[in-house]
Design a protein that fits this description.
Strand order of the largest sheet: 1-3-5-4-2
Radius of gyration: 25 Å
Shape: elongated
Number of helices: 10
Number of strands: 11
Length: 283
């Protein structure tokens, strides 16, 4: 699964919700950072250029990050879905000017990063936390036919080469052919997982892959299924299956001669979360 990139510059014990009494100081720090971005001075001895102003985003000031917590989950909990985020924590700064002075030199490259668009500041006494982020772009995938063709080509490319799937060795296997009924079963299961935000081989109606293939009109002799979630491309989904011993064994199984695949996107989690299904069989 492709991971969202996060960088915590300094870990902090907790980021607390902004209190009204401190809101003005926190807003002032945002203004100071944007003023500095517009006309930065030296940054580690290298020439720097001005950067656009950061947008103040209230959700980034509400995020809580405790020991052992994951930034991805913390940001999602406050409704911000980040493609990239950086967190800076500074202590012992009595006001916004002191906070900027403490981070301006040490973290100038982070503060001037033109890829970061949003900012949120939280303060607790003399401790400040600055979150800079870029929202994740909407998930866009090719149509089902193109995605299926890509998966089929990658599967047959993998089957053409001997490999280990965990501790099991597999000789090269004959290519599999595309089957529309298996693709229908795969798409329906992906849609079911997306609709219920449930990652499982068992469907919401308690069905298994054999039943779903039969419902799609496929008479099978051998059958198997791979599922995946969170991958943002067909290439990434196949790569993940090949890295997993059990999924890899299905993909390399010489008993299978046909295949179908499909995906579905859940928009409950922005920018979208994809569920993938791949069904192998022999008729």
């Amino acid at each position: 699964m492709k991971a969202i990139l996060f960088l915590i510059v300094i870990a902090t014990s907790e980021l607390l919700t902004m209190r009204p009494a401190l809101a003005q100081n926190e807003s002032h720090l945002v203004n100071l950072i944007n003023t500095w971005r517009a006309s930065p001075d030296d940054c580690g001895g290298s020439n720097v250029r001005p950067a656009p102003a950061l947008n103040r985003h209230p959700a980034l000031a509400r995020v809580r990050i405790g020991p052992g917590s994951f930034p991805e989950s913390a940001l999602e909990q406050v409704g911000y879905y980040a493609g990239r985020a950086e967190v800076i924590h500074v202590g012992g700064a009595p006001d916004a000017e002191a906070a900027l002075e403490a981070i301006r030199t040490r973290y100038c490259r982070t503060l001037l990063d033109r890829q970061l668009q949003d900012i949120g500041v939280a303060r607790r006494g003399n401790e400040w936390t600055i979150v800079l982020a870029r929202p994740a772009p909407p998930l866009v995938l090719p149509d089902q036919l193109e995605a299926g063709r890509t998966i089929l080509a990658l599967v047959n490319e993998a089957r053409a080469t001997a490999r280990h799937c965990g501790s099991r060795y597999f000789h090269p296997a004959r290519p599999v052919d595309w089957n529309d009924a298996l693709a229908q079963a795969a798409r329906e299961h992906s849609s079911d997982m997306a609709a219920h935000r449930r990652f499982s081989h068992r469907g919401s109606d308690d069905s298994e892959v054999a039943q779903r293939a039969t419902r799609a009109g496929y008479r099978w002799r051998h059958i198997g299924e791979n599922i995946a979630a969170g991958q943002t491309s067909a290439q990434e989904a196949v790569a993940g299956w090949l890295e997993s011993p059990g999924h890899c064994a299905n993909l390399m199984n010489p008993a299978f001669s046909e295949m179908g695949a499909g995906y579905a996107i859940s928009r409950a989690r922005m920018p979208g979360f994809a569920y993938w299904t791949q069904v192998f069989a022999m008729p």
